[in-house]
Amino acid sequence: MNGGETTSNNDTIKKRKIDPESRQIIVPPRDAQIHYTPLKTGLCYDVRMRYHAKIFTSYFEYIDPHPEDPRRIYRIYKILAENGLIKDPTLSGIDDIGDLMLKIPVREATSEEILEVHSKEHLDFIESTSKMNREQLLKATESGDSVYFNSDSYASAKLPVGGAIEACKAVVEGRVKNALAVVRPPGHHAEPEAAGGFCLFSNVAIAAKNILKNYPESVRKILILDWDIHHGNGTQKAFYDDDRILYVSLHRFKMGKYYPGTIHGRYDQTGEGKGEGFNCNITWPVGGVGDAEYMWAFEQIVMPMGREFQPDLVIISAGFDAADGDTIGQCHVTPSCYGHMTHMLKSLARGNMAVVLEGGYNLDSIAISALSVAKILIGEPPDELPDVTRDPKPEVIEMIDKVLRIQSKYWKCFKSKFGNAGCDFQEQINNSIATKNFPLQSAIRQQQVRNLSKEFNFSELPIYKSELPEDTILCSSNIYESNTIIICVHDTPEIWAKRDAIQGTIDPSSSIIVDSSLDMIKWAIERKYGVIDINIPQNLLEQENYYSIITAQEVLINLWDNYLKYFPNVNKIAFVGIGDAYSGIVHLLGHRDTRSVVKAVINFVGQKQLKPLVPLVDESLGEWYFKNSLVFSNKNHIYWGDKENKKPRKKYGRVLRCDTDGISNIMEERFEEATDFILDSFEEWSDSE
Amino acid sequence: MNGGETTSNNDTIKKRKIDPESRQIIVPPRDAQIHYTPLKTGLCYDVRMRYHAKIFTSYFEYIDPHPEDPRRIYRIYKILAENGLIKDPTLSGIDDIGDLMLKIPVREATSEEILEVHSKEHLDFIESTSKMNREQLLKATESGDSVYFNSDSYASAKLPVGGAIEACKAVVEGRVKNALAVVRPPGHHAEPEAAGGFCLFSNVAIAAKNILKNYPESVRKILILDWDIHHGNGTQKAFYDDDRILYVSLHRFKMGKYYPGTIHGRYDQTGEGKGEGFNCNITWPVGGVGDAEYMWAFEQIVMPMGREFQPDLVIISAGFDAADGDTIGQCHVTPSCYGHMTHMLKSLARGNMAVVLEGGYNLDSIAISALSVAKILIGEPPDELPDVTRDPKPEVIEMIDKVLRIQSKYWKCFKSKFGNAGCDFQEQINNSIATKNFPLQSAIRQQQVRNLSKEFNFSELPIYKSELPEDTILCSSNIYESNTIIICVHDTPEIWAKRDAIQGTIDPSSSIIVDSSLDMIKWAIERKYGVIDINIPQNLLEQENYYSIITAQEVLINLWDNYLKYFPNVNKIAFVGIGDAYSGIVHLLGHRDTRSVVKAVINFVGQKQLKPLVPLVDESLGEWYFKNSLVFSNKNHIYWGDKENKKPRKKYGRVLRCDTDGISNIMEERFEEATDFILDSFEEWSDSE
């Protein structure tokens, strides 16, 4: 009655031992079949690494110890025991630590191993510290770059190197499924020739070299992911021309002002020679970053790149100084986020992963962060991220975009997904002098010119700067008779476009120019005001917007000195600035005394930088500007930072935070407020009712 | 001598049992501290679910059984045992299955439970089948929508419902860390009122309802991720207005022609009422998708959305019919990819996850796929993806983009990261009739007009179609005297632009128009040919490009009938088509006999659809077109599919596959070939040497 190859008699299969598919009698397997036994997670820890410590020279150092404190590794070990990941009731570093983790003995690295990365001179120098007296040690400490020495330093510093090597070996040889090396002093700042940043030897770099050398068949490629808040200059340098190591670092950069503060940590340092394309610096332009930024970077860059690289081993240079609570890092990565990052990286290299401690100076923060990582290593899922509603900071989204653009030269996953237009863009821009390419902004300005001349009979106002296009300044036909003038100074209007998801190009047929200044001009025309419309072009070849800022300043001064001053009837002027161009207005107001005629200043800044008024003519100009201006910024303008109720300084004018982002959006939101303010200043407010 | 709070005497800590931080004597913890014990993975399996089977009505059904075959669950159970994940040497479904997995007993769901989702009528009908005779069962089978019944169906079908409920319960109550329910018949096509697609009851939907009802405090939100290759219409319907369930389905859609083939599976079906925004259909427009597409969808959509939703439980509706080898799904998801997806989802809801089998019909494929998922559940890392170099199909990248755009209305993670311009775009386009927005394409055409009239003295050629802009056709001043004419018919040129990473808007100051036709025009001018330049605008408000295709056809016919036919001296014409506009040329060549003067046709198609020549005038036109044309397509043009050496049919002309993508790139690549071809046809080839 029943179909298929099954039979409907209950338990038939069991009793007769008939294989339901082959219908043959089952011979029970001789023995339990190869039983799957999950491996443990390896753990490196050794109290001897605590002997390297800073020599006290004052009572102050006793109560406020050096951040790279010997207790760092102890506190991590302790929290693992407290949470049952290891069994060591006396926390003395015993060998048998239970069912979940396997102790990997730590040993001193040999000189031969260290010399794989470091110079003989460097090794000799560190060795020499073991024979120095207190005076000499203090002197060596002082002359170094953020390092300290005591007479145990040499011996102690060989242990994390040996520990990192042994941790990686245990993973590669399949004795553990992954490993955590709780070691110090850290290593990633130690360059081949020099110690630095609390680091004596480059632990992770030496371990990676060692593995590549000794397991040439099974490990051909290693991903080193460095999430310490500082750039791992030492590790980067050791492999900068090596295509077997992909070094990816997430760190604060701050225009090169954050330790170690060299250009080597910049996002455009992508490796050289054979190693070109195998170095990736993801730099935080600002402090205070946290889960949102790290998750964004991992999903957009680290994971696709990691998968394409196909490493045989992943080493995490795990500093915990980006952790919430670390006063050196001043960032807010939560323990869950460290868990999520570890979990994601576990999906590479069939889970072959060694986590090696680097920096991290808040003892509580590093302990709970490391615990979260260890839980993932033994196989637990990550905790939920505490706050998923915060967006990555705009500066970070922009930076990630830059990194993607530069790395898309080397990584197919970015090239194809973010469009050819991405990586060849600069090249095309450079070709724009070539005949078949021309800048979009002039086409758009011409469209504005056609609109304004056709609809409102605007004409060009000649400007005495030959390099600027003739269509820079337009004015309404009533300009010379008007006593009231609105002067609109704007960037080229923005475009809302659909971007081709594959090519990255813009299809003009489905794109629109959103000319926000037009509403303002129409409003002024309706009121029979005179109108001057100024378009400030930008320089295609420049990265920054200095060109347009300076142009705007020159154009406005020029307009004042050659025209406005001499207009016979004018007694009321309102300025409306839009985008970068607004800086020209602020400049003019500080450099000329325009108060007799200028009654109101409205600036729609969007996300552009706020410009202070520098009162060259008269000290009281600042106060005057504050009283007579409205400056509208994006909701998420960098100026506001994380603070809810920041009060801007008066030199910026009366800065208001909009409820939305984007020039066209904030102009729509605040149009009425802006025009009412102008009317008020003109004392024409009652007219508008 | 040594600093900090450490002491340099080796082993001091151990011997004296002094806590190094507090310096107090250590009291060993009374007992081993709370020892961390990892939970097992739950497993549902019951041979009784195999009793539902199709009644044979012919020998044919015996040798080629119904795909929803009772062996499906057995094969999965077997492979788990063979790989040591469970211990059951006789494969009979015993209770004690070893250290890694815990057997969760399967029971029949109660009517009360089933009625939480289904109507009384539906339940009664399914129940009635248990009392039907063979005739009646066959009749019920025939009249249903892809379902079958035997007299065990009712009893069997209550088991997967009970199994799914118990699997979820075990996870939610913390008895297992996660669970795998190897159950059948599947459930996700069963709608509240009707069975369908091999599904009788909606297993996962009923389980989800049950959990929400019985654990209101601990489970407030559930993510149901459905990776079966078919849309889970039943599950979607059960929760379409429910904001407690986020239903995300990845499935083939094929313009609604793939089972179940209703518009409910479309990407723009996002829920209604309270449930608006809690339904997400990620639809594959084409077959043959695999790891690259699924990983892309997960990283771009599923994971950010899942994190923002913050579910308390994740249920995977795990059909394995997208697996490589499944002839129904015709896709290529590898076992590793199923592992990766499971691994990623494990990072949600603190790992609380139940995986419930849905479809999947290749017995080998479902076994190895399910094994890969089970390994992740017990805590193993995923295997490496076998091929990480293949890009997602262009159609899929476009679709993901569409899904992001539509979901960005509801999910902050997309809104902020993909720009406001994304979700408000259509609104803005609709506003483009409004005064302050104007289409970019007319600005760009005007720029072309300025260039051509200034540099080469081009002028407008009037066209008798009032709705087209006057600048549609331009011609060189020598056009009436020329005997040789090049006619360039093109879309509005494309733009290479930097997209604002935050707003999604385009900054015109850093954007360029890449006018590829200009090279061709210059080449023709240099040879003193007459030149006609035709710009075909597109319709802003239309989704598709029909408007421009029809416009191109009308313009070309019009040009032939009113001008070209009457030009006194012309005896050689070459057409150059660029983009969608090229269809106008193909149309003309099929509808008029132009062979006396047209010597060559060059079409740069890029990624646009190939157009066949329809020879209305004379059958031999097709052959003539093939001989006298070159049609250049993108390297990754959809036409080529996965085939290396596809030979296009002659009606498309001589189609050639370029080495690159994008109109401007392929024009650069093939410029010389194209111009040589034209010269050859003009018999002027020797001139060009």
Automatic annotation (TrEMBL), chains A, B:
Alphabetical GO CC annotations of the entry are:
euchromatin; HDA1 complex; heterochromatin island; mating-type region heterochromatin; nucleolus; pericentric heterochromatin; rDNA heterochromatin; SHREC complex
| InterPro entries in the record | Arb2-like_domain, HDACs, His_deacetylse_dom, His_deacetylse_dom_sf, Hist_deAcase_II_yeast, Ureohydrolase_dom_sf
Histone deacetylase domain span: 66-376
A biological process from GO: negative regulation of transcription by RNA polymerase II
**What are the residue boundaries of the Arb2-like domain, all occurrences included?**
439-685
Which keywords annotate this record? Chromatin regulator, Hydrolase, Nucleus, Repressor, Transcription, Transcription regulation
Q: Which CDD domains match?
A: HDAC_Clr3
Q: Name one GO molecular function term.
A: identical protein binding
Pfam families linked to this entry: Arb2-like, Hist_deacetyl
Catalytic activity, reaction form: N(6)-acetyl-L-lysyl-[histone] + H2O = L-lysyl-[histone] + acetate
Q: Nucleus among the record's keywords?
A: yes
Q: Where does the record say this protein resides?
A: Nucleus
Query: Organism's domain of life?
Result: Eukaryota
Write down the EC number. 3.5.1.98
Q: Which family does it belong to?
A: Belongs to the histone deacetylase family. HD type 2 subfamily.
Summarizing the function annotation, the protein's role is:
Responsible for the deacetylation of lysine residues on the N-terminal part of the core histones (H2A, H2B, H3 and H4). Histone deacetylation gives a tag for epigenetic repression and plays an important role in transcriptional regulation, cell cycle progression and developmental events.
This protein's name: Histone deacetylase
Please report the organism this UniProt entry assigns to the protein: Naumovozyma dairenensis (strain ATCC 10597 / BCRC 20456 / CBS 421 / NBRC 0211 / NRRL Y-12639)
Task: Provide the organism lineage as a comma list.
Answer: Eukaryota, Fungi, Dikarya, Ascomycota, Saccharomycotina
